[in-house]
Amino acid sequence: MILCDIGNTTFHFLDGRKSIKIPLDEKLPTFTKPIYFISVNKRATKKLKEHYPKAINLKNHIHFDTKYQGMGIDRIVACMALNNGIIVDAGSAITVDVMENGKHKGGFILPGLNSYKKIYPEISKKLRFEFDTQIKLNKLPKNTNEAINYAILNSIITPIKNIEDGKEIIFTGGDGKLLKHFFKKSSYKRNLLFDSMKRIIKEI
Question: Engineered SS bond to 13: which of 20, 55, 107, 133, CB 3.0-4.6 Å?
Answer without folding.
Answer: 20
